[in-house]
Structure formats: structure tokens, C-alpha cells
Amino acid sequence: MVIYPRCPFTGRMRDLTNLKTAVCQLIPEAGCPEKNADTVCGMLGDRDAELFVFPEMFLSGYGFPDAALRERTERALETISEKCAELGKAVCTGSPRWENGSVYNSAFFISPEGIRCYDKIHPAEFGVYSEKGFARGMRPVIWDYRGIRIGICICYDIFFPEIFRWCSASGSSVNICCSASGTVSVPFFEKILPARALENTTYMIFANNAGIQSGIGMAGLSRVVDPFGETVSECGTGECVTEAEIDLGHLEDCRKKRPHLRDYLGGNWKMQDCQRCGGNFRIVKSIKCNEQFSQSEAEVVQPGKARAWKARGNFPSGVQISPSALLMTAAA
Fold first, then answer.
1. How confident is the model at residue 142 (pLDDT cuts 50, 70, 90)?
2. Which CATH class is domain 2-266?
3. 191, 184, 182, 185: which is closest to 212 by C-alpha?
4. pLDDT tens-digit profile of 285-331?
5. 201 φψ region: left (φ > 0), alpha (ψ -120 to 50), beta (else)
6. 307, 300, 253, 240: which is closest to 275 by C-alpha?
7. Can you give the pLDDT at residue 16?
8. pLDDT reported for residue 17
9. Which residues does residue 210 pair with via DSSP β-bridges, in sequence order?
10. pLDDT digits over 260-274, tens only?
């Protein structure tokens, strides 16, 4: 069904269609990107969904990848790309990515228009999780597919709200979290998923791993959450595929009833042309604008680099600013 929602950011009318999605909570074969790519392609052929979402590091299996997997993984991505072009469908899947001697924990968005990627900004290094060795991503991204804007994060990223706030304020109707969340993290994800959906009045797709991977018992429980934080469809703890339709009419109604993004964009908080890195952070200047807001200049010094970059933005007076509070420029 074609509907004509008004963009809450520009006020313009756009011709959009609802989007059929399949969240694929399947267990990958570790170290075998070819077989995992075949699994993805098989799902594309078997179901009539338009967007298929797979968990974190699905193409290689969760864990730091062997360098020998690089060419095989890149060929696997091309195999999926060819299938997407053939069937006119799209896939979001986790995979390692190699560039300039660094390895990234990435999510690839593959559609008939090509292959795009996002690199995980916050690798997890606590408790049962050890992602040491992965380079940090530098910025959020937003993807367009069939007229719908889609935001993305990977697992631990979701606990940093600035990423999805940036995506939603940049126009996303759907935010995806590809995840490798163990059973120990279930209580936290149960709280954060509806919160991220509701605060941004944006659909939330959570694709989590299942089974045992790198010695971690993965929780499964993948789901689709609507803009009011209500679960639309969900998986259990084992292998499962759950489908849901992203209803843009419902999205528009939710945003009319709870205009969080409208009021966020219309207030004193503004998107800044800033970047994010894992360096040391300090406020170097703060000029009081009024009783509520100050203009702050921040400086970040990256480890091993003498030069620093600076960013300015309006922040509440008296509030301590963290690096994540500096929102990033679009990658697109």
C-alpha cells in the first residue's frame, strides 16, 4: 500500500511504501563466509520480505577473524550483492572489514544499488566480551532504501544514545542493531530496546546471535519494536526467522502523538559538524550564552597523534560533556 507521509524534518511530502522485513536469527558457521553467504542467499530466495537483517559478525562467526578470511569474506559479500541485484532485495549483515592494516567489526548494507558499510564505534571489552584488536569506527551512517532512511548500530553501540538520535534526527524511519548479545546481557537489552525506539519514535530492528559462539552463550530474542516501544514480532532463544512490516502510516501517527524529534530539532540542541574518536577529551573553552546554554569548545587528542581536532556546540550550562555528546557528520 502506498502512503504519502510528511517528512517530520523537512515538511515535504514523500511517496513511500511500507517495508517488509525478515529478522534472521540464524547460527553461522565459524570461519566459513562462503557457507554463511549461501545461507543469506537462500533466505532471499525463500521469503518474500524486502529487507533481511542478520546478526553481528554473521559472515565469519563472532570473534576476531583470521587474516586469511579477508579475500573469502569479500567474495562472500559480492555473492550476496549479486543475489540482491537479481531479486531486487536488500540485506544488512554483520561482517569483519579490513582496511589499511586495521580490522573493523562492521555491518554491511547490500542492495541493488551496491554495498555500503558501518564500522562499530564502541567495541565491547568487558565481562564475557573481548573485542580487543578491532579498530573503532569514527562516525554513524544512514542508508536509503526504497525511499526509506535506515540507521544502524552494532550491539554495545546501542547503549550510547547519540548514535540513534543522530540517525533519527537525520531522517531514519528504521534503526537496526546487529548484535552478539550473550544471555548475561538480556536484562539490559530488554530495557534499552524499547527505550531507543520510543525516545526517537522510530522502528527498531534487533538481530541477535544464537547458540554458542567464541565460548559465549548468545541470547537470541531478536525482535522488531514499533515507535512506541511495543514489540511487533520476536524470536525465541534458538534459530528463528521473524517477519514484520514497517508501517509508515503508524510511524507518522506515533510521531504526531509524541513529537520527540520535532521538539528536539526545534529547540536549542543542534546537529554539529563534529567527529568522534577514542581519544582524550577536554573542554577548552566555555562561553555562557544565557541562563540555560553555554557555547563550549571541545578538544580531542587521539592516542599517538600530536594534532587535535576541535568542535563547538551548544550544551546545557553546568553539564559535563562526554565525547559521545559530540554528534558526528554523516558518512553519506
1. very high
2. alpha beta
3. 182
4. 443 443 443 444 444 444 444 444 444 444 444 433 333 344 332 22
5. left
6. 300
7. 56
8. 72
9. 219
10. 988 875 443 333 333
- State the Cα–Cα distance between residues 221 and 223, nearest whole angstrom: 6
DSSP SS3 for 107: strand
By DSSP bridging, strand 90-99 and strand 51-53 are parallel
* Among 305, 322, 309, 275, residue whose Cα is nearest residue 137: 275
Closest CA to 122 of 104, 96, 98, 109: 104
Cα–Cα distance, 112 to 27 (Å, whole number): 26
User: What secondary structure does DSSP assign to 5-70, as a single string?
Assistant: PBPTTT--B--EE-EEEEEEE-PPPTT-HHHHHHHHHHHHHH---SEEE--TTTTT-SSPPPGGGH
CB 81 within 8 Å of CB 117 = no
CB 167 within 8 A of CB 152: yes
Cα(5)–Cα(248) distance, integer angstroms: 7
Please provide the DSSP assignment of 253-287 as one string.
HHHHHS-HHHHHHHSS-----B---SSEEEEEEEE
- Cβ(328)–Cβ(138) under 8 Å? yes
The residue ranges of every structural domain in the chain are 2-266, 280-325
SS3 category, 303: coil
Convert the pLDDT of each residue in 232-253 to its tens digit: 999 999 999 999 999 999 999 9
